[in-house]
Design a protein that fits this description.
The complex is a heterodimer of chains A (about 45) and B (about 200).
Chain A (H helix, E strand, L loop, with lengths): L7 E9 L8 H6 L2 E9 L3
Antiparallel strand pairs in A: 1-2
Chain B lengths: L9 H17 L11 H6 L4 H5 L3 H5 L18 E5 L5 H10 L4 E6 L2 H13 L5 E5 L12 E7 L8 H11 E14 L17
Parallel strand pairs in B: 1-2, 1-4, 2-3, 4-5
Helix pairs in contact in B: 1-6
The chains are: A mainly beta (about 45), B alpha/beta (about 200).
Chain lengths: ~45, ~200
């Protein structure tokens, strides 16, 4: 989707355990959600 | 606009998100189904000394995903768009990087969040950081005006992710950077999930 928008050099960064300790941590685990950072560049 | 399960409309989801984050802005210490606040910000990577030097109002209502600013490679004098700025923590962080010769435009579609962000920017005495109320359909910045766009946890709450990416692409200068922190699913949702508005906040 990021590339489809026109971006290039798409890089995934670190994964983060966002919901750790939150009231819905169990939902996050059940649905296999994760936090992630990513970076991309507009050509030019 | 992508089709949503359960007969939900994009407008209904947007209204629910606006309402929920308005509640965060008004009373961040109440219980939410997602993490909020300064302690959470520090846990996901915001430096304690940075947080200590910024208005509490920004960090206390932080509801992002991670700490994207250090990944943006910001330099003095650059223009940054903080898309979905919330209470303004990333805008302020970016403001410390670009300095008074730069510009940071924090944009959010929740009026209560924008009001809170503006109070934080004023308290921080960073006039080069500004708050703008707008949804993602037509962002205020002009075409090719930003060196970087920062996003911290809004794609997962917006039904039209392609539109947000298109707008981020439009406002970036050629060679500009998109830096995002986001929630992702590593496997498809069960078919009976995602049919109610509450599912968007689980």
């Amino acid at each position: 989707m990021v590339r489809e928008a026109g971006f290039v050099d798409v890089e995934l960064g670190e994964f983060i355990d966002v919901f750790s300790g939150s009231p819905h941590e169990s939902d996050a685990r059940e649905f296999e959600t994760r936090g992630v950072t990513f970076r991309a560049r507009k050509p030019g | 606009m992508p089709r949503l399960p359960g007969g939900l409309t994009a407008e209904a989801v947007e209204a629910a998100v606006r309402d929920r984050y308005g509640q965060v802005a008004a009373n961040p210490s109440q219980d939410f189904t997602f993490p909020v606040g300064r302690e959470f910000a520090e846990a996901v990577g915001y430096p304690a000394d940075l947080l200590a030097g910024l208005p509490r109002e920004a960090a206390d209502a932080f509801a992002g995903v991670a700490c994207p600013v250090p990944h943006a490679g910001l330099a003095a004098g650059e223009t940054v768009v903080d898309l979905g700025c919330g209470a303004g923590l990333d805008s302020l962080f970016a403001g410390t990087r670009v300095g008074p010769g730069g510009r940071v435009i924090g944009i959010d579609f929740a009026p209560a969040m924008i009001a809170r962000a503006q109070r934080s920017f004023t308290a921080a005495a960073m006039p080069w950081v500004e708050a703008r109320l707008s949804d993602g359909h037509c962002l205020p910045p002009a075409n090719a005006s930003a060196d970087a766009v920062i996003v911290n946890g809004i794609f997962n709450l917006n039904p039209d992710k392609a539109m947000l990416l298109s707008e981020a692409f439009r406002v970036l200068k050629p060679g500009g950077r998109l830096v995002a922190a986001e929630i992702i699913l590593t496997s498809p949702l069960p078919p009976d999930e995602g049919h109610s508005l509450d599912d968007w906040f689980r």
